[in-house]
């Protein structure tokens, strides 16, 4: 059961990555602690989550967890935060979420990359996603590939008029890129026996079920993939 005035959607922040492309900034700290506009990336995420008001925020840990834990222990949302320890074995995105499923009480939940950076003054993308979710499958927040700040890839998905996503596959380009923010139904993890796997396995299951849907972001999204992207994101958040 959720507490008084708590949002029924709990949250997992994927924070266990190695941040290799962000070096040397991540030589001593994990990527979620890299600062944009004077605040760690995960701090911007938590600002949006404060408005969402979830009961639980699960954060997985692997690479240099000390600075991240210290920051989160002091955060105003510290009493909501649950750590999922992957320091011994990195489980990849899907395995990390699977390990944390017990915290979500068989209800759909939000998953976000810790570096999913949205313009801070924009409408809350987390709240917007919960208003769209229909109660089953996977709902991914996407951005138009041509409008994605700092993203130079060919895109990830096509989207039908009713919001169903399909993969780019062998086609050279796709009009939408995944932002790293999503809502997932725990049922999609049933029958997945692997302990270490990508969330792409879950998206493929949703595709087979006809339950992989997309929502276009209503606020600017920045792809923070390299140190050079931080300056552009900072300009956008002024």
Rg over CA atoms, rounded to whole Å, is: 17 Å
Residue-averaged pLDDT: 89
Number of continuous helical runs: 6
Count of strand segments: 13
A few lines on this structure:
This protein is α/β, with parallel strands linked by helices.
Characterise this structure.
This protein has 238 residues and is an alpha/beta fold. 24% of the residues lie in helices and 24% in strands. The protein has six helices and 13 strands. The strands form four sheets. Strands 5-4-1-6-11-8-12 form a seven-stranded mixed sheet, with helices on both faces. A hairpin with a 2-residue loop joins strand 2 and strand 3 (39-40). The relative contact order is 0.19. The model has no long low-confidence stretch (mean pLDDT 89).
What are the SSEs and their pairings?
Blueprint: E1 11-14, E2 35-36, E3 39-40, H1 41-52, E4 57-61, H2 65-73, E5 81-85, H3 92-100, E6 109-113, E7 116-118, H4 125-132, E8 138-144, E9 157-159, E10 165-167, E11 176-184, H5 200-209, E12 212-216, E13 221-223, H6 227-236
Parallel strand pairs: 1-4, 1-6, 4-5, 8-12
Antiparallel strand pairs: 2-3, 6-11, 7-13, 8-11, 9-10
List keywords for this structure.
globular; two-stranded antiparallel sheet; seven-stranded mixed β-sheet; alpha/beta; 24% helix; 238 residues; 6 helices
